[in-house]
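The records we work with from here on pair a chain with its fold. The integers have meaning only within a learned vocabulary of local backbone shapes. A complete example follows; check for yourself that the lines match position by position.

:::
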Amino acid sequence: MQYRGETKFNVAQLLRESVGAIRTYRIQPEVEIGQGEKVTFTGQLDLLRTDKGILTRANLKAPILETCSRCLTSFNYTLSVKFQEEFYPTIEVNLGYKLPPPEDSSAFTIDENHILDIGEAVRQYTEIAFPLKPLCQPECAGLCPQCGKDLNEGRCQCPTLPPDPRWMTLRNLEITK
């Protein structure tokens, strides 16, 4: 099966089929993730006919360059995006009349030409998939707060700071049972 580089799928035929009909695609869409930056995902997309529309199930991965939140070095990271969303038709496929909008105003829709576009869903789920505090490695030592040396490369020559005197009272407490 070949990869499709698109985010748009004509689902007119699938909408004419019975509930449970499915299409599976290997996809490789390029999606803008903000500030003009584009990422190319690779993965699988399933389109399943439901009684109300088309259920999309996507499992996508993309290699990206991230910056470690502790040591500020760049590192390769695999962004994994999985989602399941139902898309609702706006036009009845056989007779061509306009359908009422879905109850949920934020629901994804299939346009009047029966084109289902997963681009916005991929973009939204990509935003959620980004790590809040990316780390180059789980044990990243970070930077020295005094000289800024990357502590993953070894210790620096900075003297150890004395403990904050405001915490000394707590340090002197003994925990008893």
Q: What stands out?
A: The chain has three helices and ten strands. The chain has a mean pLDDT of 90. The radius of gyration is 25 Å.
